[in-house]
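Hello Y.,

Per our agreement to keep a running log of every chain we model this quarter, I'm adding this entry. I've kept the format consistent with earlier entries: sequence first, then predicted structure.
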Amino acid sequence: MRIEHIAMYVNDLEAAREFFVKYLDGHSNAGYHNAKTGFSSYFIRFEDGARLELMNKPDVTETDKTSERMGYAHIAFSVGSREKVDELTERLRSAGYKVKSGPRTTGDGYYESCIAAVEGNTVEITV
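Predicted structure for the entry above:
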């Protein structure tokens, strides 16, 4: 068994798509739009086959992303080395994204940084 994909609602579908394509080497499909419901989405595929569905629908409400809460906490991307973690973290910082933590080695041995990326949702960059 494997996870087929993970999905997240966003307010700015195009900006979210651009983030995952530009910074995390994702490949996007052409998108889907249901004129009847207003639902729109993109599937972003990554090198190892993992997929992320970015979705937008006018009546979906915003939640507080500023504090820890129950539910999904972050999406983690392995970039292959500590140097690449450092490089991507700095690239995102320079692009104006907030680095929430790291790069650092965590108590459980991960080398990572956490970025407040797409609309404040946390993206973890790890080895």
